[in-house]
Amino acid sequence: SSKIVSIDMFASNENVVFVMLIGLDYDEAELDSLIETMLSKVEVDGAKLWSCNVCSKQHKKRSNITVHIESVHIEGFTHSCKICFSTHSSRSGLNFHMSTKHRAERSIVPKI
């Protein structure tokens, strides 16, 4: 697959608002690496939580924060369904779509 051509960060009051990836395709490892830079583990009232470094949203499950970052703060590309061509803002969204809309066809289409 192609590499990410460029990464533009848009800021407001010194805080990154969102990241736009520009390119025809992306490498999942690069996307995962970018998401890693946008989250951290914090302790709040004795509880360890995962936090979005962009907007400070917190959750005890890391996967909830990674999906949040991918769907809310990273823009510029979508994940397309290979069956109906609908588009989704995150890999998780596409996988949910596949499990609810294309349950029968899912066995013949590779998982994203």
What does this structure look like?
This protein is α+β, with helices and mostly antiparallel strands. Helices cover 29% and strands 31% of the residues. A hairpin with a 5-residue loop joins strand 4 and strand 5. The longest helix has 12 residues. It is elongated and about 45 Å long.
Report the uncertain regions: 1-18, 20-24
Strand content: 25-35%
Mean pLDDT: 77
Distance between the termini: 14 Å
Overall geometric form: elongated
Q: How many helical stretches?
A: 3
The major sheet is characterized as: 3 strands, mixed
Helix content: 25-40%
Strand order within the widest beta sheet:
1-2-6
* Strand runs, count: 8
Pattern of helices and strands: EEHEEEHEEEH
Rg on CA atoms, Å = 16 Å
Query: Helix/strand-derived class?
Result: alpha+beta
Secondary structure blueprint with pairings:
Elements (H helix, E strand, L loop, with lengths): L5 E7 L2 E8 L5 H10 L1 E6 L2 E6 L5 E2 L2 H12 E2 L3 E2 L6 E2 L2 H11 L11
Parallel strand pairs: 2-6
Antiparallel strand pairs: 1-2, 3-4, 4-5, 7-8
Compact summary:
The protein has 112 residues and is α+β, with helices and mostly antiparallel strands. The chain is 29% helix and 31% strand. The chain has helices at 28-37, 62-73, 91-101, and strands at residues 6-12, 15-22, 39-44, 47-52, 58-59, 74-75, 79-80, 87-88.
